[in-house]
Amino acid sequence: MTEQSRFDRIGGADAVRAVVDRFYDLMEHEPGYAALRAMHQADLFPMRVSLAEFLGGWLGGPRLWFDARPCACMMSIHRDMGITRETAAQWVHAMSRAMAECRVDPALGAEMQQAFLHMAGGMMRE
Ligand code: HEM
Q: Is the CB of 118 under 6 A from ligand 1?
């Protein structure tokens, strides 16, 4: 039996896009994510595309984001953003809520949450 990729387990591109859309909707409308929202451009549409393409490839699906940026490193992209403990926690919290509300399989959601916590920890600069 061939092992399913995490991209298949989450439900493919539509499911990834739903999580990403919910993530940015929460960021946009919930006061608890105001500091995180303030770091982003007024128009979140490009981020909705970018994060969905990144996550799709990262989960084992089409590598759109990676193919468009052959040498890009996610950690380097965030290095000079001045990410604090507060904004890192807001990112991880909003993503965790988005995954739960979109009914991502709990075991897969927990795996992804661990990886996001790890990445966010490395992106913090204070
Ligand atoms: C630790 C907390 C994080 C904060 C505060 C943060 C913040 C930001 C900000 C402010 C931008 C630029 C947005 C804009 O131009 O409007 C950005 C870009 C981006 N972030 Fe994060 N981020 C965090 C963690 C992450 C993580 C863990 C991932 C991936 C799992 C991620 C994926 C992305 C992507 C894909 C982009 C777009 C880069 C591009 O396509 O050029 N971020 N982030």
A: no
